[in-house]
Write a structure and sequence with these properties.
The longest helix is centred in the middle third of the chain and has 12 residues, at 63-74. By secondary structure, the protein is of the alpha/beta class. Helix 3 (96-107) links the parallel strand 2 (78-84) and strand 3. Helices cover 28% and strands 13% of the residues.
Length: 157
């Protein structure tokens, strides 16, 4: 089944917050955009967030087009955040400027893209530590090279 269709179906479901005992908050995590500006996750409260591992030179690169369509259609209730990573086959070797230009020129991307980070290993970014750890987020998410979905609205933690 197409993961975008599955995700879109979650947008129409209830926005009941999930109780997350003893978990840390996403709002304390620091990450920059490609432009070097700090991203404040608390500005997305009340919206669903779709974190997507992205790379310019992989078989999933055309997903930028579908992600942009998804963002355009649901931007009032959905935040799409592309997270470049060069850990899977060295498929994102570009600098921040190169990544930004590639995404805009080839796919018209206007959704948020973060700085390039490590999503696994010793240098794993705190965002991915949070996304993949039940002790961090209260609900373990599996790390796949394609996507991590946050299927609920974030609440104050």
């Amino acid at each position: 089944m197409n993961p975008f269709i599955v995700f879109i179906k979650t947008l129409s479901k209830t926005n009941k917050p999930i109780k997350m005992s003893s978990s840390k908050s996403l709002y304390g995590i620091k990450i920059d955009s490609l432009q070097g500006e700090s991203i404040d996750f608390s500005s997305f409260k009340g919206k669903k967030i779709l974190f997507v591992n992205v790379a310019s030179k992989c078989g999933f690169t055309p997903q930028y087009k579908d992600l942009q369509k998804l963002y355009d259609q649901y931007q009032d209730s959905l935040v799409v955040i592309g997270v470049p990573c060069n850990q899977f086959g060295k498929q994102e070797p570009g600098t921040s400027n190169e990544i930004e230009e590639f995404c805009q020129v080839n796919y018209g991307v206007s959704f948020l893209i973060t700085e390039k980070v490590d999503v696994k290993g010793k240098e794993q970014h705190p965002l991915y530590a949070w996304l993949t750890s039940k002790t961090e987020n209260g609900r373990k998410k599996s790390l796949s090279f394609a996507k991590s979905f946050m299927k609920r609205s974030l609440t104050n933690n």
